[in-house]
Amino acid sequence: MMIGFIFLFISLFFLSMSSLLSKKRAETMASKRNGSALNEEFESRAWNNLPTDILSEIIGRLHFRDRIRFRATCKSWQLAQCDRPASKLPWLLTHNWNWDKNGYILSICKYHDPSTNQTFTNTHKIEDESLTDIFGASVCASKYGWLLLQRSCNTFLYSPYTKEIVKLPNLEITFNRSTFSSNPNSPDCIFFALQSSKSSPMLRISICQRGDLEWKTYTFDGFRRVIEDVVYSNGVFYCVFSGGVLGAFFGHLEWKLLTNMEPITGISIRYRLQMVVSDGEILLVCPSTCLHIFRFDWSLMGWVEQDRLGNKALFLGCTSFSIVAEEEILDLKDKIYYHGDTACFYSLETRLSQLSDFYPRVTPGEGERIWINPPQF
Predict the structure, then answer these.
(1) Lower CB density within 10 Å: C or N end of the chain?
(2) Are the C-beta atoms of residues 294 and 261 closer than 8 Å to each other?
């Protein structure tokens, strides 16, 4: 395996070196002397002292497992960064649970990296007997490469890349939607869960942080609406209910209804509403005969429909993402990606849905499908 990686690296090195030298020669064609000095500089460089732009060019062509080996080679190579726009595309994760022959829980993760168009599977054997309740847990949220899992009253944090699992306090209420505010490794990260239904006049919100022994639950007057989605932005948890009713839970433990009770009219909403935070704005995707996009307007305290996303692309899931479509992924602008039995996108330009070129077909029943941030290795 290591020999294969070395051959791969050498091939990419000479490809990148050739490309960079050709560029440099073109820039210095008027001066033969300067061109010779440039060649001598590259020919005399040690492997651990390569230019950062060459290292970044190489690492941008590597699979993420090879990126780990690449950065482990020497200290100077750890500085290489992959800044290609395609490297910021969310990965498609298919997750499933199973048992091995010795009775250990297996977490099976199948990833697809759209920047390299590669798919691979990673199996994590969970041997800690205190984590047996994690089997069968569903993914509630996905951020910063972490998953928030829930099974009954049990809640867990799980990083499929690093295989780290954190058991959160048991939650006494059966929550409908949940998320978290920031990277779970940050001491400021807040976990948020909300319960609301047509059958109850009360709305319950629970929050906790890593290290807490229990969740803190707050009860507010409800309005018998089903919670559809929650997002976090600038210190506030935003909650959208059936019909597009929007509420907000502020850091000082205040709950406030932001819209009236009929904020969206003239549209027959067929499926679950989903929100996306994009450059600080709250966007709402309403599935009807087509997908409608709304932006929350603070001056009107209501939703305003918009026809286009500009240079953005959206990815809808248990947690939804917004990315800037530029350079090599410019064709993604004004498109909304989602996954059912397979990954598709809806174009706001053509008003049609198509199969995705970036993501593969998924075998039905293979497991949960989640968008996840690419690993920061």
Answers:
(1) N
(2) no
**Tens digit of each residue's pLDDT (9 = 90 or more) over 198-250:** 888 899 999 999 999 999 999 999 888 999 999 999 999 999 999 999 999 99
What span, in angstroms and rounded, lies between the C-alpha atoms of 154 and 174? Answer: 10
How far, in Å, CA of 33 to CA of 29, rounded? 9
What HEC string does 223-275 produce? CCCCEEEEEEECCEEEEEEHHHCEEEEECCCCEEECCCCCCCCCCCCCCCCEE
Instruction: Quickly tell me which residue has 């290795």 as its tokens.
Output: 377
Q: Give the H/E segment covering residue 13.
A: helix 2-27
> pLDDT, tens digit, for every residue of 46-79?
766 777 667 666 666 665 556 556 655 666 665 5
Q: Do the beta carbons of residue 226 and residue 196 sit within 8 Å?
A: yes
pLDDT in tens, 86-101: 678 899 999 999 999 9
Strand partners, 111: 93, 120
If residue 146 lies in a helix (H) or strand (E), which one and from where to where? strand 146-151
CB 314 within 8 A of CB 320: yes
Beta bridge partners, 23, equal none
pTM over 0.70: yes
